[in-house]
Amino acid sequence: MQELLQAAFSTPNIVFTVLLLVVMLYWVSVFMGLLDMGSFDVDLDVDMDVDVDVDVDIDADVDANAEVTGGGLAGILHFFNLGQVPFMIIMTFLVLSMWSVSILLDHYVGHGSLGFAALMFIPNLAGSLLITKVVTSPLVPIFRSLDTSEEPVDYIGQVCTLLLSASPNDLGQAEVSVNGSSLLVSVMADREEIKKGEKALIVQENKEKSYFIIQKLEE
């Protein structure tokens, strides 16, 4: 235990240890009733020099204002379960994974080298994101069933407007108007690419991956 504490507070690992302590403090506060899981709202403001302006409201308390082409950002957020699992749960697993990997790499390879730790940061982040994806994926249907804040919407047969282009291979984003409210959904084209601004018909739902299949509406 003493060796683990020394490793945790060594220079190559101290940043991840502090992040882990912050996460632990958050969950202690939640369990004590001092905070709730929605206490920390996170705004992801991504400004990219391209031609689509999209506001994405994510249930995981993540607001993303993005200008992207294709389904890039929407696909990435969706892939890592943002919007399907609470943001702080995803961050908890991410920080815990990065801390563990950093400790192991430093112990077996780095031996206290700050340069090695800096070199391994990006690979550590990439690997930990994938680990977080795998660990949190089983939680997606659980939190979906717990979300009773809104009445379920039957999207099949609804007409939507593409905000991010969609193809049979790439996720896009579409806006659906239901009872006067504009809702954003992840979509994938059935046969041909449907570009931004075009209208499409929602024909099917992929519940496992949480997106809808659409067909282009001919003018």
Identify the notable features of this structure and list them briefly.
single chain, 219 residues, alpha+beta, OB fold (Dihydrolipoamide Acetyltransferase, E2P), 2 domains, five-stranded mixed beta barrel, three-stranded mixed sheet, 7 helices, 8 strands, elongated
Unreliable residue runs: 41-71
Q: Please list the strands of the largest sheet in the order they lie side by side.
A: 4-5-6-8-7
Mean pLDDT: 80
Please compute the radius of gyration using only Cα atoms: 21 Å
Number of helical regions:
7
Q: What fraction, in percent, of the residue positions are helical?
A: 25-40%
Strand content: 15-25%
**Looking at the structure, what is the overall shape?**
elongated
Quaternary: single chain
Count the beta strands.
Answer: 8
Structure description:
About 40% of the residues lie in helices and about 25% in strands. The chain is of the alpha+beta class. It has two domains: about 1-145, no CATH class; about 160-215, Beta Barrel (OB fold (Dihydrolipoamide Acetyltransferase, E2P)). The strands form two sheets. The protein has a five-stranded mixed barrel with strand order 4-5-6-8-7. The chain is elongated, with a radius of gyration of 21 Å. The N and C termini lie far apart (about 70 Å). About 25% of the residues are buried.
